Amino acid sequence: MTPANPSNRDEVLYAFAVAHPVPDPEALDAFTKLYPEHADALTRLAVELMLEASQDGAEPVQPVDADAVSPAVARAISHYQNAVYELETKSASVVPNPFDGLDMTEFRAVAQAMHANNTFMTKVRDRLIVPDTIVARPGFCNRLAEELEVPPAHVVAHLQAPPTTGAHQNYKADTKPAAVTQQTFEEAVRRSGLTEEQQAFLLGL
């Protein structure tokens, strides 16, 4: 049941998801104006819901009039549309890994520039994070694309592909690797040995 007057963050997100399982720009804009303190969380949730809907065959969100909604909503919808376009035009099996070619020094430099550590960035590189929970964060994806010097769409396509941990591990010939368990973006941030400052930075992107 949708709360009549949602107040805390979880209630607001729940009310939005129930009212708009396949949100449109106008719905997101209206909710962010009603609850500006939860605008970032609402935007991430809307992008995640739209991506899930597009993968289930729902009608794609139409191009948004940037003058009709807030700048944050316009950016979120643009990010979503770029992600969907990339998913539709690229096969996951041929998506280039933007981390390929980085030596250990360069990899550490990217991690440092992202205010992260090697553990967290390895999860990103090997796609050990649930795709929708990281793709729904355009701030993180765009920042990572800048550091890797690739288009944001390449980062999104990489993150949507299957996990690749097997490529970075050695197994005995008679031993199969264990099934890969992905974490949500927030779980990955919380469980990678990052400092509180690093966690706050990443979760704020």
Question: Can you walk me through this structure?
Answer:
- It contains 11 helices and no strands.
- It is mostly helical and 205 residues long.
- It has 2 domains: 9-89, no CATH class; 93-166 and 175-203, no CATH class.
- Helix 1 packs parallel to helix 3 (39-55), helix 2 (25-34) packs antiparallel against helix 3 and helix 3 packs parallel to helix 4.
- The longest helix has 19 residues, at 71-89.
Present the secondary structure layout.
Blueprint: H1 9-19, H2 25-34, H3 39-55, H4 71-89, H5 104-113, H6 118-125, H7 131-135, H8 138-148, H9 152-160, H10 185-190, H11 196-203
Mean pLDDT: 76
Q: Figure out the total of helices.
A: 11
Instruction: Tell me what portion of residues adopts beta-strand conformation.
Output: under 5%
Helical content, roughly?
Answer: 55-70%
Cα Rg: 18 Å
What structural class is derived from the secondary structure elements? Answer: mainly alpha
Short overview:
The chain has 205 residues and is mainly α. The protein is built from 11 helices and no strands.
Descriptive keywords:
single chain, 205 residues, mainly alpha, 11 helices, 56% helix
